[in-house]
Design brief:
Blueprint lengths: L4 E3 L14 E3 L5 E8 L13 H18 L7 E8 L5 H11 L6 E6 L9 E8 L1
Parallel strand pairs: 4-5
Antiparallel strand pairs: 1-2, 3-6, 4-6
Helix pairs in contact: 1-2
Length: 129
């Protein structure tokens, strides 16, 4: 199977975080992952009221779903991040860049007015295995 490849042009703004302008997905099985928030899988409760801990747990939860689908974090071609306050953009970028391998997937970040269980962060992904 071929690896994903990154599309970049200087005629559009460069990425301002750990993501690519666009990604060409390899041929394979496409899996659409539902959003994950920072819930402890054992208790169903948020792991913390802090954005960094919630983001780390949400990415951990997403990682387990990717593994269950037969993939790895390298298989991510698109992420969508949801935050309740864009001031947390830097924290989320830091967490993401420490966990997601390069080349980074395409990504969107959206500020929302609320998330389930009062979460501060949610992540969803598209992977190709």
């Amino acid at each position: 199977m071929s690896q994903k490849s990154v599309i970049h042009t200087d005629k559009a703004p460069a990425a301002i975080g750990p993501y690519s302008q666009a990604v060409v997905a390899p041929v394979g099985k496409t899996v659409f992952l539902s959003g994950q928030i920072g819930l402890n899988p054992a208790t169903g409760e948020l792991v913390s009221d802090q954005i960094e801990a919630q983001a780390r747990q949400a990415f951990a939860n997403m990682t387990e779903v990717i593994k269950a689908a037969g993939g790895t974090l390298d298989n991510i071609v698109k992420l969508t991040l949801f935050v309740t306050d864009l001031k947390d953009f830097g924290v989320v970028n830091s967490v993401m860049s420490s966990l997601i391998p390069e080349p980074f997937p395409a990504r969107s970040t959206v500020e929302v007015s609320g998330l389930p269980k009062g979460a501060l962060f949610e992540v969803e992904a598209i992977i190709v295995i």
